Amino acid sequence: MPEPVIRAFFDEPTNTVSYLVSDPATKKAAVIDPVLDYDHKAGTVTTDSVEAILAAADEAGLEIVWALETHAHADHLSGAPYIKAKTGARIGIGEHIKEVQRIFRPVFNATDLRTDGSDFDHLFTDGERFRIGDREAEVLYVPGHTPADIAIRIGDAVFVGDTLFMPDFGTARADFPGGDAKKLYASIQRLLALPPQTRLFMCHDYKAPGRDDYAWETTVAEQRRANKHVREGVTEEEFVAMRTARDATLAAPTLLLPSIQVNIRAGRFPAKEANGVHYLTIPVTFKKDAHAS
Is pLDDT of 290 > 70? Predict the structure, then answer.
């Protein structure tokens, strides 16, 4: 059986890679980690990135049957609902999204939010297999970056979400609520135990120092050999110490607050208020040396 046809779409404002993955025999397709264009300063939304994927699918004669999320992203808003509205595709995510919803519901006082995952059309379990046309896909549970991360294996390709970056950039942070560096290490080892020729597709790239171009495809063999954080010989203890120290220096992603509260709703914005406008919540915490006037 021929390998799936994979087309990548890079969104430079959020450094996110979305994928259009199709079965060449049946022309059925899935979109993985689609991006909604959100201008944080203006509070405006456009769908240019998703439209580019839909146009490519239309040009190739593809039917999109899945909009898949590797996790609830903290750096971009999901375009999955727009894909669903245009194609009828089902939105799928890992079943542990329920834990993420429970963590963040009180943070945003999101009283409308159900914490049973029912905003999504399907919740995948570890090891679950599903079909994209005649191609079988497999779900791998890879927590650590968040409690709900999954990787998606289709043929010789694995879409790793935010577990790994390109070898010269390393690995994902593990300091978000529910994140765990030990679990991240174990998840990465699960991916690196796959056959060495397995192709790995990243969800992000930031052009590591010394590299001129963006990149998002590598292999298990290359990650084992060269990943700066988890190459062969790096122990769990060493990784956790490195990851903990590094995460302590990282700023919150620019779109963290809008992204999380939208993405845990399967890309749905909070309901319109009486004036017909959607509002996002920004929690405000006064530090010890601050005071309200």
Answer: no
